[in-house]
Design a protein that fits this description.
Layout (H helix, E strand, L loop, with lengths): L1 H20 L6 E5 L6 H17 L3 E5 L6 H9 L6 E6 L18 E9 L2 E6 L7 H10 L5 E4 L5 H13 L4 E4 L3 H9 L5 E5 H9 L3 E7 L29 E7 L4 H15 L2 H9 L3 E5 L1 H21 L16
Helix pairs in contact: 2-8
Length: about 325
């Protein structure tokens, strides 16, 4: 009887190993946190075919914006932890707790790969009257609550950069929500918003095509893809206390996904991220390559959460103190 049970256990183990080794056996659903045309969407769809080449199966991409990333994050978190539902996400969930948007952040997820990070840029319509950040800020002061800023929701890049601007310049504008940075840039082009702080990757092509004009990059020095755009610290040196800062892009699965499936995804996306074509696209869009996963990625995300959560708290933009969640102050 004991021998029969042992044989059964061995057989079950072999079956499980064979089944795991077959991953993926069918197409994978990739949920993109933000809407079509934004930086997260572009990065996700650019890396997708290279990952598919390694996995041998399709990744069916679905945009699921809303709640500053909370809707897509919650969707994948509630899906089976079997590797067939993966999240293409940006930095936003790391702020969900302090902004009161959700009760969890990326602590329930495993970072398969953090592809790259970016910096922000402030854009206006090509024929807008403002040629510098100072002109925009001073006009906003003269006409409080008259100038419209395109936003993507609490905790998004526009919200965070606006909080920094408000702390340094006492900027007083009206926020107009959109489902991602792509729609925000489009809104500026169409005159539905006066300006937008967005990721460099979401705006570079429109800037180079002359559809929008960049006033400043949210950095202490110019970026390679936009060498003629001044850093925001040139006009507002005090902004430097918040920098360097910027969004990041990656792919995630539930933390309780089987280790062998995690390993297969890490291998696929590390290879995809290292693809020369993808790396060139990232460089062209002003992104800084990272290609980190696992513990290294978690350490990076923890530091980012600490810095940004306390930044929002200190400027009065956080609803709940980071201290409540044990987020250490940098």
């Amino acid at each position: 009887m004991i021998a029969r049970k042992l044989l059964g256990a061995v057989a079950l183990g072999l079956i499980t190993t064979v089944a795991s080794a077959a991953y993926p056996e069918r197409d994978i659903t990739g949920t993109i946190m933000w809407g079509a045309g934004g930086a997260m969407d572009v990065v996700s769809r650019a890396v997708q075919p290279h990952a598919e080449a390694v996995l041998g199966k399709k990744i069916v991409m679905v945009n699921k914006p809303g709640g500053t990333g909370a809707i897509s994050t919650n969707f994948v978190n509630n899906a089976p932890a079997d590797g067939y539902n993966i999240l293409f996400g940006a930095e936003n969930p790391q702020l969900h707790k302090v902004l009161g948007l959700a009760e969890f952040d990326y602590d329930k997820f495993f970072p398969v790969t953090i592809f790259a990070r970016s910096v922000g840029v402030v854009v206006v319509k090509a024929d807008a009257p403002w040629k510098t950040m100072t002109e925009l800020v001073e006009d906003a002061k003269k006409r409080p609550s008259k100038i419209k800023m395109a936003m993507t929701g609490p905790g998004g890049l526009p919200h965070t950069v606006a909080s920094m601007l408000g702390a340094v310049t006492k900027l007083n504008t009206v926020s107009v929500p959109f489902d991602g940075e792509g729609p925000a840039v489009t809104a500026v082009m169409g005159g539905h918003a006066d300006f937008a702080p967005v990721g460099v990757g979401a705006a570079t092509e429109s800037i180079k095509a002359g559809r929008v004009r960049a006033l400043a990059v949210v950095n202490t020095e110019p970026v390679d893809s936009l060498p003629n755009v001044p850093p925001i610290t040139k006009e507002y040196p005090d902004f430097g206390k918040f920098l360097p800062w910027g969004p990041f892009y990656g792919v995630f699965v539930r933390k309780d996904t089987p280790d062998d499936i995690k390993a297969a995804l890490v291998k696929a996306f590390k290879t995809a991220t290292d693809n020369p074509q993808f790396k060139q696209l990232m460089a062209d869009r002003g992104n800084i390559m990272m290609n980190i996963s696992g513990a290294e990625a978690e350490a990076f995300m923890t530091k980012w959460q600490s810095v940004t959560s306390w930044l929002l708290h200190d400027v009065g933009a956080a609803k709940i103190s980071p201290e409540k969640f044990g987020i250490p102050k940098p």
